[in-house]
Design a protein that fits this description.
CATH superfamily of the largest domain: UvrC, RNAse H endonuclease domain
CATH class of the largest domain: Alpha Beta
Oligomer: single chain
Distance between the termini: 89 Å
Largest sheet: 8 strands, mixed
Number of domains: 5
CATH architecture of the largest domain: 2-Layer Sandwich
Strand content: 15-25%
CATH topology of the largest domain: Nucleotidyltransferase, domain 5
Shape: globular
Length: 624
């Protein structure tokens, strides 16, 4: 900004709280900060004799011009600063590298017959939440165990109490028949009876294991006394599952409340923050966050972490313990309290159990620096580093989201397309999508690709500006920073034609194959660009390509199998559309259905015993 005079603009700064935004000569935002007094804070960067770290000194040397936004309070400035940092990722701000969502256990206590569910979000929906946990697998195992122990329903039906349920489903589902659900859908389980079991499950989730362990021991002994060894073995398996989950809760905070302990370690080049999550007095998990090549002070890194991490996590504990006092302690505490709706305290403990647990978090952070840093760097080289390599080859400023498409069919039968998404070099499977061709018949890959891309981007355009909460629709709203095509020039031309018609500007890159159908280079802007086949960038492109291919083939195979099942089931007397769908859902192939007994077929919803006998007889008529 050639007409911008820093000296003159500094004189105009107000003494109000607000946010200041530093730009370089290319008008790129390189730093965002907040201030109680914009005049004092911004002037301090340019005042002679003021000490700055090497990182900030470098940033100051690049400032071409700045702008600022006045706010009514320091709290408003903090919120605005945080939003601008998340939106612009300025180079000289301390940025949280990790983008994690933590799993919760959700109990739908507002329903007449509540369920225990896995959830990635904590919403204000009258449900009860436990967590966050750091292991999704552990959460799923715990939920599975709860359902087995207490026979909690897993279906998503709306089930009314017996006195209000005029049409109970006496058949129930398989879980009822194998003793893993009370089946309130049958209309003979009262809310009180069901909630007795739910109360035991909630007690378990609150960490009270002794009662269930004692009960299981008694049941196991009783089964052994009556020589029912199969039942005894089943109960023993549940017993050890409970003990395994209980063992993970060994470290405790004796006050039994929700707290986070934020440990810190640095080696002058890198910094690590380790967070211990304590819920209801028990350490349920931990997570670390790496800050690369940091020359910032501990206070700045911890402050930046608190603002960025707790702006994205759905749950905020009542107390957060930090290893040193920070200047923004009061305003961050006020902001967190407003987000939580209750008082949140930032505490630096000086003695006792809390200090020891905080020291333990710090030692773990130091251990990550000394032992795991190389492993972390290698992983980042495969993901973020690989993306940077692709950016450099293509001359693109920022690639955060990549999408790739592939086509699969058998001689034109069941034409399908896959869409896979990679963000920051990692697959984002929740955004994967499948397309079954509606307009293309016969083996025409170009036409299939044109239809798939048109449908994907038209859907995205239609959703632009809408408040989209449905996760399935969210994947279409965000457009990619790079579109990767499995083929070379032909596929790229198809993609660019679709994007041009829709008025969308997305870079398109193709993969050029050699005589052995291996990628040898990239096709971008009508030019073949060489790529080192041993580089991390090349390996990432190969992973994206393989993933798109795998996803397309799996979808095509599932349709082909269902088509085969569909054609055979059409011939069976007594099997209409509804029963056919139920059978296709229960059995993945005709072979699986043929292996099933009459009793197993009769367990399928919608299939009465006489129809099951007819299905069995039809499938085995050649053997008779």
């Amino acid at each position: 900004m050639s007409d911008f005079c820093i000296e003159e603009e500094l004189k105009k700064l107000p003494g109000s709280p607000g946010v200041y935004i530093m730009h370089d000569a290319n008008d790129t935002i390189i730093y965002v900060g907040k201030a109680v007094s914009l005049k004092n804070r911004v002037r301090s960067y340019f005042r002679a004799g003021v000490y700055h770290t090497a990182k900030i000194s470098k940033m100051i040397s690049l400032i071409d011009h700045f702008e600022y936004i006045v706010t009514d309070s320091e709290l408003e400035a903090l919120v605005l600063e945080n939003n601008l940092i998340k939106e612009n990722s300025p180079k000289y701000n301390t940025l949280l590298k990790d983008d994690k969502t933590y799993p919760y256990i959700k109990v739908t206590v507002s329903e007449p017959y509540p369920r225990i569910l896995f959830s990635r979000q904590m919403k204000k929906d009258k449900s009860k939440y436990f967590g966050p946990y750091t292991s999704a697998q552990a959460v799923k195992e715990t939920i599975d165990l709860m359902n087995k122990l207490y026979k909690i329903r897993t279906c998503n039906r709306t089930i009314l109490p017996p006195e209000e349920n005029d049409t109970p489903d006496k058949r129930a589902c398989l879980n009822y028949h194998i003793g893993q659900c009370m089946a309130p859908c049958r209309g003979d389980v009262s809310i009180e009876e069901y909630r007795e079991n739910l109360a035991k499950a909630l007690d378990f989730l609150n960490g009270n294991y002794s009662g269930i362990l004692k009960s299981l021991e008694e049941q196991m002994k009783a089964a052994g006394d009556r020589l029912d060894f199969e039942e005894a073995a089943r109960i023993r398996e549940l017993y050890f599952s409970v003990k395994s989950i209980a063992q993970k809760q060994k470290i405790t905070d004796y006050e039994g409340e929700d707290k986070d302990y934020v440990g810190f370690a640095t080696d002058d080049k890198n910094a690590v923050i380790q967070v211990f999550f304590v819920r209801q007095g028990k350490l349920i998990g931990r997570e670390h966050f790496l800050f690369k090549d940091e020359q910032s002070q501990e206070e700045e890194i911890v402050s930046s972490f608190l603002k960025q991490f707790y702006s994205g996590t759905p749950y905020i504990p009542s107390e957060i313990f930090i290893s040193s006092e920070i200047e923004e302690k009061d305003v961050i505490g006020e902001w967190l309290s407003a987000k939580k709706g209750k008082k949140v305290s930032l505490i630096t403990p000086k003695k006792g159990q809390k200090e020891k647990l905080l020291e333990l978090a710090g030692r773990n952070a130091a251990l990550i620096l000394s032992q795991d840093l190389e492993k972390i760097k290698k992983e980042e080289a495969k993901t973020i580093g690989a993306v940077h390599e692709i950016e450099e080859i293509l001359g693109l400023p920022l690639i955060e989201r990549m999408e790739a498409f592939d086509i699969s069919n058998t001689s034109g039968f069941a034409n399908v397309a896959s869409m896979v998404v990679f963000e920051k070099g990692k697959p984002k499977k929740s955004d994967y999508r499948k397309f079954r061709m509606k307009t293309v018949t016969g083996p025409d890959d170009y036409a299939c690709m044109e239809e798939a891309l048109t449908r994907r981007f038209e859907h995205g355009l239609a959703l632009q500006g809408q408040n989209v909460e449905n996760r399935e629709r969210e994947s279409f709203v965000k457009f990619p920073d790079l579109l990767l095509m499995d083929g070379g020039k032909g596929q790229v031309n198809v993609a660019e034609s679709v994007l041009s018609k829709l008025g969308i500007d997305v870079p398109v890159c193709g993969m050029v194959k050699d005589d052995h159908h291996r990628t040898r280079g990239l096709y971008y802007k009508n030019e073949e660009l060489p790529i080192d086949t041993h580089s991390e960038g090349f390996k990432l492109i190969t992973r994206v390509q393989d993933e798109a291919h795998r996803f397309a083939i799996e979808y095509h195979r599932s349709l082909r199998t269902k088509a085969q099942v569909h054609s055979v089931l059409d011939e069976i007397p007594g099997v209409g559309e509804k029963r056919r769908r139920a059978l296709m859902k229960a059995f993945s192939s005709i072979d699986d259905l043929k292996k099933a007994s009459v009793e197993e077929i009769a367990k399928v919803e919608e299939i009465p015993s006489n129809v099951a006998e007819g299905i069995f007889a039809f499938l085995h008529k050649e053997e008779q």
